[in-house]
Amino acid sequence: MILSVASGKGGTGKTLIATSLAFALSEKNKVQLLDCDVEEPNADIFIHSHITQSYPVFIPIPKVDETKCTYCGKCAEVCAYNAIAVVNKKVLIFPELCHGCGACSYLCPESAITEEGQEIGVVEKGNSGNIELIQGRLTIGQLMAPPIIREVKKHIDSRNEVIIDVSPGTSCPVVEAIKGSDFCLLVTEPTPFGLNDLSLAVEVVRELGIPCGVVINRAGVGDGKIEPYCSEQRLPILLRIPLDRKIATLYSKGVPLIEGMPEWRNAFFKLFQDIEEIVSVNQAAK
Amino acid sequence: MKEVVVLSGKGGTGKTSIVASFAAIAKKKVLADCDVDAADLYLLLQPQVKQEHEFWSGQTAYIDSEKCNQCGLCEEICRFGAIENYLVVPISCEGCGFCSQVCPVDAIAMHENMSGHWFISETHYGPLVHARLGVAQENSGKLVALVRQNAKHIAEEGNLGYIIVDGPPGIGCAVISSLSGADLALLVTEPTLSGMHDLDRIIELCRHFGIPALVCINKYDINEENSRQIESYCAKQKAEVVSRIPFDNVVTEALVNGLPVVEFSDGRVSREIENLWQSVSLALGV
Predict the structure, then answer these.
(1) A-B C-beta contacts closer than 8 Å
(2) What pLDDT band is residue B140 in, cutting at 50, 70 and 90?
(3) CA–CA dist A89, A86 (Å, integer)
(4) CB B197 to CB A249 under 8 A?
(5) A39, A59, A184: best mutation site toward chain B, by most B Cβ within 10 Å?
(6) What are the pLDDT digits (tens) for A227-239?
(7) Fold topology of A2-57+121-285
(8) A1, A100 in Cβ contact below 8 A?
(9) Which candidate from A39, A42, A101 shows the least CB-CB separation from B171?
(10) ipTM, 2 decimals?
(11) Is the pLDDT of residue B162 over 90?
């Protein structure tokens, strides 16, 4: 099963849920935990894996051989991202705008363009018990997270239980991380911000056609509007975690919830069971 | 006119609650919500929308099945895995147009995307520029730039002294677009290991772009030992910690009541945010 943990709003507890679920499942299974929040990867703060492998992620950036170039301007014309400009017998390349699609080098009539890799981040792998952690890390100052997320997801081995920790928001990095999941768990908090961003995240997940359920973190604070929203939208609420200073303190120290408060173990087993049930019903319906 | 952008790296540290309070405290300013994925500032400022604009950005490929001779070249050259069985998977398409350039029978057209909306609104506290990126859309960076451009224009026209920007979480595309060229970054962190890890990356990003940064530790008393570590770390990084806001449920209560916390309570949180604004406006030198 590939299970992604997303939220829309930041700081609702995605990593808290993803890491505790990983520890719970790892008691019986091999688990891959993919940290796809490549702008701010934090799962390993809780997993303490020993990173044993690290390799750079490149995107291909055009390089022009000026001895072959006739300055015809075809490359600039085909580039959808304005990453190439041809002015006064000079070709200017703006690597940070390039998506690495390859159109310019393929379509150059003089074959004057080759591609060279530009490093935009790294993928790191490590282990902790039965958990294999795979995390991406965007280089500071780089814009594009999706190619790193794609690289992290290449390591998915579907014989394992796979948990994907997603970044906040609803745009391309979130879509890249969630797509292909069997289920998406949406973590929210009972405040107007939590509800607003949950409803946006639900739209994304539904657009992708992935079944989803909700975890309410810090239950007991705020207003009571999440639950009516969920029942209206037929979203199952699969877990409630109360606002508890002890939980917040454990989190602040990087202690996984089910390690610091083992009484939560069963709740995470139950959570996963419920998800498996929804997924199997869903697959049967297909 | 001076522009301050409120960032955090990690989501959910309190950026929007602080910006909403600044809205109530600061005189002569325009507000900009650059968290276009999950815009929440409007929930506290109750804006009246004066102008609504469509945001057209980027393209998606479309294959005309009548013309397509199923040669498969498009699928072969697409680096985003966006073509399967002679059809485009819109959610994976990055709009590069490579396929439409190479199609031998001219069966692929590029369609413009309506990627969201942006608004100019009036609030109790002054003008607000905000946006809503369409579900699962790309180009959040461009929409952020548009929001900032309009906020700047309004500030110039109205001779307003400040632009206060509520930024998105992370360090990628949308954050860089919110930050570049600003006068000051205010970094809101929390004393958790995750918050500290992410603060480190956002400080480095500010340095990369040469933007001076101030730091605010929100909920500092959740883990005072971590708060002390943040202070000594920030001192070394030349990013001064100018404020320590205590944890208090009043922030959530204000949120539930749809008010900036300084309008809802005159307790210690509100006093601390008032002092914080003093430090910010002093640093901006207006």
Answers:
(1) 189
(2) confident
(3) 7
(4) no
(5) A39
(6) 999 999 999 999 9
(7) Rossmann fold (3.40.50)
(8) no
(9) A39
(10) 0.93
(11) yes
